[in-house]
Structure formats: C-alpha cells, structure tokens
# Entry
Amino acid sequence: MTQRILIAGAGIAGLCTAIALMQRGFRVTICEQAETLRETGAGVQISPNGTRVLASLGVLDALRRLAVEPTAKTIRLWNSGETWSLFDLGAMSVAEYGFPYLMVHRGDLHTTLANAVMQLDPDAIRQGAGLVGVENRADGVTVSLSNGERVSGDILIGADGIHSGVREAVFGSGPAHFTGCMAWRGVIPSSRLPTHIRLDVGTNWVGPGRHVVTYPLRAGELFNFVGVVERSGWETESWTSKGTREECADDFAGWHPDVHALIDNIDVHYRWALMSRPPMERWSAGRVVLVGDACHPMLPFMAQGAVMAIEDSITLARCLAKNRNDYVGAFSTYEAERVTRANRCVVAAERNRDIFHNERLMDADDASRYVSMQWSEPKVRDRYHWLFAFDAVGED
# Structure
C-alpha cells in the first residue's frame, strides 16, 4: 500500500503536492536542498484554473489578502503605447470561471504554502537535504541526501524544477537548452511610478524581438517588471545574476516612456537565461514520478508555468488516493490526465513568443492591424478559455 511519500523539492510544485497528499492521509517527507526556505523571483500570475486548486488546498483566502485581483489585462504597442484589451478579469473571472485571477509575489505564495505544510506536519520539510542519489527498486525507493542521510518511502515525487536531479537520475535526461531568450526582472515600489501606470491591470507590451510584462503585486504596494529579449551568447541561468539599469534600458531603446519609467525605478536589475527541455510523454518510471518544471518546463509566455505545477499536484494526489494499493495505476491515470494538457501549454507558450515578438510590430502602419487581428476576442478566447475553465480538482 502506498503510504509514505518522498518529495524532492520544496518549491511551489512540491509544497502544493505535499498539502494535497497530507489532506488525503498520506505521510510526506519533503527533501529540500536549500538551508532555509526562501522563494526567489518576483511576480507570478495564478489564473482561475490555479486558484480553484489553491481553494481546495485551503490557502486561497490567505493568498488573496496578499495578492492583487486585477480588473483586466491589456496589450500595448512597444513604441506608441496604443492599448487593446486582452480580457476582463476581477469580478468577470469569478463570474465565468468561479474563481479569481491573482497576481502575487512569488515569495508570498511560497510562504503561504510552506505555512500550510507546517500546520499539517511541522516535521514534513527537511532543509539542507538535497537529493544526490535515487534507488528505484521494486519494493520501494530510497534517496541519498546531501546531508548524509538516506530516506526510504513507497514512492518518490520529483518536484525539483527544470534541473531536476530526480529526472536526471531516473530518466537520464541531458542538460536544458537555451531558448534564445534572456529576461530582465525587477520589483518596483508603486509609489515611485506615475499614477497612470499604477493601475490594477496586467500589461503585455509587445514589440519586434522582445516584450515586457508588468503588473501590480502585494495589494498594489509593488509593481512587477519582466522584459524578455531575444539574443544569443548569454546563457547564465540564475535568478540573482545582476545587470545594470543602462544595459536594461539599452535592450529597450526606442520603447515607450512608460517602459523606461519602470526600468528607471527598479533598484536591482536581475537577468536570467530562459531554458527549456523537449516535452516528455512519460513522467513516471518504477516508483518515481515527476511534477511541474521537472517534466514540462515552459517559456513564461502563457503565465501558466506555476499553474500547471499546481494542477499537477492535485491531480497526482487525487490519483494516488483513488489507487492506494496500485501506484502503477495511479501514475498511469495521472499521466493520462496531465501529459497532453501540460505539453499543449508548452507548445502554446512557444507560439506566443512568435506572436509577441513578431517583426510586423516594427512597421507603424501594419502593427495596429497585426495586434487587432492577433488579440481579437475570438482569438483570445481560443488561446485561454481551455486553460481557465479546466477543473483539476475533480473528486476523490
């Protein structure tokens, strides 16, 4: 009988999976390589298909107090600032999908999830315990940890991200590859920005070869900035690699003054390479299964990377609860429910790169026609409704 479960990684995917499993009576041990629990990064968007899951995990109310429920998302043209509506949010999201669309600081989300895990089991998370080896046997699984411990369980869940040690140990996958995109990120105190920028609205600025995403965080106290640039020869993948204001501004030379107002008010301009892996058709082998970026990393162009991991978590827990004496059957059902959907999202995010960065946006006359066509109401609904309307919670 599957009862004791090991999870590698205490990020969003690992913590959500742990909560879902403990709610269903499983014993969980999370092995985390970091000495202290701390989620780096800046903003994350959680669409209704994700907040539906967070509600079932019992954390949505706490998160809403820390987040922003935007009224809308808009598209703006890189040089003129011309604006189009992408979709209405706020009350409209709840009315159509039953759950809110949230924009939240990644650290606030991580802290909320970690607190929920520790309320269920104060000893569930082992820090300074990175995975260094996996024994995937017929009768159980044992992991060797960086602190010298060996821990055994019935199954192992790899929730350890794009550079997953579990994936490497079990599936033998090679290194992630550079996508040709580099991202700038920063968080800005909203009080520094002009009032016309400080709106409860998410904005995608689109332009040839690059785009910018901005939105409010932490009940409107902060503003998130992510700027993605196509380039070659710079492949440092680190959330804490620093650039300069001048370098960031040069990458967006000629862009609208509102973009530069954001860039000028960032204290530290972080940059990182966006990496990827080919989609996987199998996420399990023996007593080991993967969730989140370990099995389906994607470009951040659909705002679904974290949400897909959240959906994975509840689906895997539900499948295991229905098949407590048959982990093979549980893994098979999980993959049947998740692989096609997640990989469809991977492909959609790749496609959005071409849409956001299209060279037609260079031509002033053609750009407006292009945006009006690509972000027409039917096309937007076609791109996003299948995501937002999905119910991963189901019934145990």
User: Anything to note?
Assistant: The CA atoms of residues 98 and 276 lie 32 Å apart. The mean pLDDT is 92. The two ends are 17 Å apart (CA to CA). The first strand starts at residue 4 and ends at 8.
